[in-house]
Amino acid sequence: LWECSPQEDFSFSDLASEYFGHAPSPMEAAGTLIRLHSSPMYFYKKGKGHYRAAPPDALKAALASAERKRVQAALQERYTQELSAFTLPPEFSGMVQQLLYKPDRNSIEVKALEAACAATHLSPAHLLQRCGAVPSSHDYHLHRFLLENFPRGTGFSEVELSICGDLPLAEDTAFSIDDAVTTEIDDAFSVRKLPGGNWRIGVHIAAPSLGIEHGSEGDQIAMQRMSTVYMPGNKITMLPDRVIQEFTLSEDRVCPALSMYLEVDPETLSVLGTESRIERIHIAANLRHDTLEQLFNEDTLAAGRLDYPFASELTLLWNLAQKLEAARGKSTENGIPQIDFNFHVENDYVTISTRQRGSPIDKVVSELMIFVNAEWGRLLAAHEIPGIYRSQNNGKVKMSTVPAPHQGLGVAQYLWSSSPLRRYVDFVNQRQIISLLREEPPVFSKNDTALFAVIRDFDAAYTAYNEFQRNMERYWCLRWLMQENVFQAEALVLRENLIKFSRIPLIGRIPSLPELPPSTKVILEIADIDLLDLNFNARFVSRMEEPEVADAIC
Prior knowledge:
By secondary structure, the chain is of the alpha+beta class. Helices cover 38% and strands 23% of the residues. The chain has helices at residues 12-20, 26-37, 56-84, 96-101, 108-120, 124-130, 137-149, 217-225, 241-247, 289-292, 298-303, 311-327, 360-382, 424-437, 449-483, 549-553; strands at 10-11, 43-45, 50-53, 169-178, 187-193, 199-206, 229-231, 234-236, 253-264, 271-288, 339-346, 349-356, 389-393, 396-400, 488-495, 498-501, 507-509, 521-530, 535-543. A hairpin with a 5-residue loop joins strand 16 (498-501) and strand 17 (507-509). Helix 3 packs parallel to helix 5 (108-120). It is elongated.
């Protein structure tokens, strides 16, 4: 029909007459009309009963497009069949991450994957795992996070550093307190008795802002990352290793530091005054939790033991920390002890240990950090220099450039400035403090839009990083259950059907849980564990009875 049709517009009856060689019968005319109307690539509709033949080039292109669609449909069908049989098509080998994390719904690969998921009743991640395309459930979660937050990778470019050799050398030597795996050592302490009898307590903070100029490539790197990312067994640092090694407060080194000295009355342990300095200080030792806590704890303090390194200095700091805590109105003597869980991952084997929060080590570090962060916040506010403050009102924490009370800590103002190797907010606040001490114009002026941008970007990044850390801790809790072959476990009812495991920081909902009051201890039977969805199924077995007093004593 297309070959014998005229170039101009024509009616279906005229073409039927030409085709059949006579006036068409009603059946012949209807047949011609049906063929014309059902062939839109060959004939364009130009009105009621009128058509025009497609130009040869347009027809050729339309036929080629139809052939491509036919080939793609056949290819999509092959993909679907192979995926439904849990076989990864060879064409999928280089695009698994795209299919998992950024699927293009218009591509035939995604359409085939969705069709196979519908046929097998599996999610894309579970189906690809059955096909062998997701060999590591850990990497599945890690790669999703990296693609969303570090699309250009986690490597660093070369960073130029300023030289800090002209800083005065402090008279004292300092020591730090950190856990065994910490490499970004931000803070250290020094203790010295002054000639008049008062104590001088030094709090020394690593000062990377002295070596990284505002607006430099190193500053841009820190501003893009905003914080170190922590996860069990690994971390992604905010600053390059070279910068960390240059400014971390490692033992047997003289390091640049922003220091605050507290003059303390020896009798009352009242803080008589403070002084802030930019200097270099010799770090005598890096004390580690795993060894120090066996020597420096409530029992050894009560016994008056002083037979370990820095024992007298730590005892003085402990007494001062209690004084500072009481001054904030935050005594924890009668509080409910809180437990911290520590994850150690080595060669895919996870160890989850517990540590009671509020130990003498924790209190010494936390109280002195709260003090210097509040004091430096007061100093900036007194000189009308903006900083990034953290305030709390009615349980809600927010960041702003205006000082406000932090009800949870019991201080009039509070800012983060004691972890500049790990958080960009601390880095920015340290710059502002150093500008004040050097009597230079601050890097960020009042109502500076760049400062508000830092708050916005930091809040978004810090929230994403914390959520990732929580998810990975949940992942390793589930791995621990599998690793230790835990089929039954003790748990504590939080509310309704929400429970928390006793030995690991894992929370979940148990549909079969009967109505029980909060804090009831129960026994659960662990069933399915899904490392991709980070979930598990468990069944309520029984309620744990409270032991008799005599049994408890025994």
